[in-house]
């Protein structure tokens, strides 16, 4: 019977997925199971019979000795530490093993490879940091259009339905996803992002579904995919419209069956995730053009949230700009910058094809280049200044100016922009405008555009 029990114990140790190493009372290694060989990347026959200290030189040697001596003395019954070796991270726990009479029999060392967990945690922290900024952007809204989107995201967080978030690049789709997750029962679970547009075709399946050791060249260990890593939380499929058709079919199967099969694996793994997808594509057009599967579209488009572009929510431009000015002034250790009336007018009439992201970058540049506490038109990017001339005519019509006043208003701004573009060189500016140098000079005087730099 004793032999049978011993055999059972041996089988348990050999089949454990955690690495098991046992040191005798003299700190000599006498057991090293297959999982420990794999995790530590060492053959058992090379370390069995050797002192644990011979494997760990320098400061690590001293720390391990101090820990084991504390176990032997009874000051502690167990201890744990994270070590970094061979470009991987391991969680090692040390437990004192004693006989019923208190005799110290040895030290049980259990190892777990936590590299993937650490990578996911860092990825989550990075994503949450970015999403924290996105959330702040989303909260700084005055427009009815943006408030409706926010309210919808908060209320939909309470249900587990799949949500498709659409909108142009830079509108804040990630902010909506963060609100959905943070207001859901899954808020304490992970929020895992997959940028479908950034994944090479040959890596999409391994990233989404994981793989087992030996599944392909370079697969030296088992690795969980994003679906498994998001278990109990939310999986964010960003830029889902960029998935190739072959991968769309496999994604559809997972969404239908709620199971994934790692590459090279023989068994399937049940998953419990909420799916939120986002895209800047008009997926119905992609379906019509044969670029996106119709059945996957309907599977993803259970609930649809469309995030409006910044040009359709102009009430948000000023508060967003001021928020970004405050943020970058702090980051650059400068007094807080504020928009001049002229700079604000340019922003309010810009089309913003890059949406909130473009506004953010413009404010970062303005803070970096400004010399005073007011942001002036010259501090703004050239693309905003060029576009402002085009929109001036629309602004004057809305302002109710008489035709002559409107023409003067437009001509003044147009000449000012031309002067700036031509580095305030009168000859070059006159040629650019198709008028004589004398006519340009007269208009400069008339509109009080004299500048010390005009030559």
TrEMBL record:
Molecular function via GO: ATP binding; sequence-specific DNA binding
Pfam families: AAA_lid_14, HTH_8, PAS_4, Sigma54_activat
GO biological process: regulation of DNA-templated transcription
InterPro entries hit by this protein: AAA+_ATPase, AAA_lid_NorR, Homeodomain-like_sf, HTH_Fis, P-loop_NTPase, PAS, PAS-like_dom_sf, PAS_4
Residue span, PAS domain: 5-74
Keywords, sorted A to Z: ATP-binding, DNA-binding, Nucleotide-binding, Transcription, Transcription regulation
Limits of the Sigma-54 factor interaction domain: 139-368
NCBIfam families linked: sensory_box
Protein name: Sigma54 specific transcriptional regulator, Fis family
